[in-house]
Amino acid sequence: MNRVIVGVDGSDGSRAALRWAASEAERWGAPLVAVWAWEFSPLIVATNAPTEIEELSQAVAQRLRETLVEELGEDGADRVEAHVVEGTPVRALLDQAGADDLIVVGSRGYGGFKGALLGSVSQQVVHYAPCPVTVVRAAGR
To answer: Residue 44's Cα: distance from chain center in Å?
Structure first.
């Protein structure tokens, strides 16, 4: 395995995926790559959120760093190759991946019968990835 690539968005599912991916990367001695994708939305302009692309990207990078530290600790976060990408999560993950990588994503799940269904990002990644994909469910789901 070349690298373990994990999609992160701050959700419980992505945090579970991050923890699982970190463990798997350590097990295989592979680098861990965390990808947080964001898209510019006209709704942002209607709020007090920063509207400059660079400001938005920096804000997302800060959230990614905070998430890495919260889930992996300071030392663990320092070992992660972090990528903040403007674009869709699916495209961001697929663009990072090669045939010898592993992609790890979370699944939001719903419980009951619907709990068996994948979220839209995980479903698309599973279908189009050039490499193996693991979908991790958050605890209690």
So the answer is: 21
Domain hosting residue 98, numbered range = 4-137
Average pLDDT of the residues of the chain: 87
Distance, C-alpha 53 to centroid of its chain? 20
The first and second tokens of residue 22, run together, are 């970190």
Bridge partners, residue 32, by sequence? 4, 80
Average pLDDT over residues 108-112: 46
**Cα separation, 46 vs 37, whole angstroms:** 21
pLDDT in tens, 56-76: 889 999 999 999 999 999 999
Which letter does DSSP use for residue 116 in this model? G
End-to-end CA distance of the chain: 29
CATH number for the domain spanning 127: value is 3.40.50.620
